[in-house]
Amino acid sequence: MVTNYISGMTLRKYTYKLYPKPKQQSALLECLRLHQQLYNAALQERIEAYRKCGKTISYNDQQASLTRIREALPEYKALPCTSARMTLRRLDKAFKAFFRRVSKGETPGFPRFKSLSRFSSFELLTPTFSHSDTGQHGRLFLRGIGHIKARGQCRLQGTIKTSQIQHKHGHWWISLTVDGDARRPRNATRACAMDGGVAHLLTVVEESGRFEQIANPRYYRTGKANQAQLHQSVSRKKRGSNRWKNACRQLSTFKRKQANQSKDAHHKLAATIANTYALVAMEALRIKNMSRSAKGTAEQPGKNIKQKSGLNREIRDTAPASLMSMIRYKVEEAGGEFVETPTRQLKPSQRCPACEHTHKDNRKTQANFICTGCGFSQNADVVSGLNSLFWALGLGREHVPEAFASKPLLSSA
Ligand SMILES: [Zn+2]
């Protein structure tokens, strides 16, 4: 979620739910439809120009013709010009991404025409949005539509940079990008290292040798059967029928609930960590490496594709990447420090903290570390975490604790 850090300023996204009246709802839907048609027309124009005369149309060309469109089709005058430009910009981004991937030798899908059900948002460059002093709830003003009540909370004082109106699951939302200083004075004093994995969501290690392993909440695994049933129920019905629509709605509600559940749990865990620790160390390549595509590339096909994609799926299910970024920004907001340790240089999962003997044979299995040099043995995730932490704190092997103990470290997690 954190997209930028410039001298303590942070860009952060907040979402408010909108409560439009029935008339406003149809007006919003009309706006969305205009944006969708503009997107499709601009796509059409690019395709035809290329097909007929081999000409490539740029964003600037299309932006210039926007004035003519607004003259010819008065309904487009209802949309703010900047907002319409953002939709053209979105198409431009889709094209740029397409050509970038083609030039890399990949085979991406060509930008597609979008039906209204697949076109769920439009941008507002300068929204007239006001909220209370605490950031809780507010009102959005749209020209020609009026004031719309909004519920939600923005915890960052700052200026609104961009915003997006979204239509999801039959509800309307506004998401704001706010620029401000998010840091608070520091309360926590302890240091720890974290290691994420498949067997456990997180392993937290302190330099005293105390550690805690936080189990994976397997919402997806338990929910998988239900989801499969709902999928089946959709595919058994006639596409476009009322019963089909109903089944689709049930499926999307289910998915949304699962995603919310996991996001909520991650927020709580990250908040507890930020309140407990002033320094959190983490291996830089941990997540990147583990969830890299199992297929590999054409030149370097991956090994054990089947096992790895299973592993990738499980990693995705527990969504550690999003959890890590959440921990990172919450720790930094709380005035703490998040240290990435250099994986290649340090090799934390192969290094023995007691004698510094570093070899891949030290890690016999995914779970156990046994040093082939001195016989030191411990849980592999704990060893890896301890190495990262010692590196971050500048501690040597003489500080390796005599005993390790599994203790609850995160009281209110
Ligand atoms: Zn050793």
Automatic annotation (TrEMBL):
Q: State a single Gene Ontology molecular function.
A: DNA binding
Transposase putative helix-turn-helix domain mapped to chain residues: 9-54
Residue stretches making up the Cas12f1-like TNB domain: 323-387
Tell me which domain of life the UniProt entry assigns to the organism this sequence originates from: Bacteria
Q: Which InterPro entries does this UniProt record tie to the protein?
A: Cas12f1-like_TNB, Transposase, Transposase_put_HTH
User: What single Pfam family name could you report for this chain, choosing any that match?
Assistant: OrfB_IS605
Region (Disordered) spans which residues?
A: 225-244
User: What does the record list as GO biological process?
Assistant: DNA recombination; transposition
Report the residue ranges that make up the Probable transposase IS891/IS1136/IS1341 domain in this protein.
183-293
Which keywords does UniProt give here? DNA recombination, DNA-binding, Metal-binding, Transposition, Zinc
Q: Which NCBIfam families match?
A: guided_TnpB (NF040570)
Q: Which family does it belong to?
A: In the C-terminal section; belongs to the transposase 35 family.
Instruction: Report the protein name in the record.
Output: Transposase
Q: Which organism is it from?
A: Pistricoccus aurantiacus
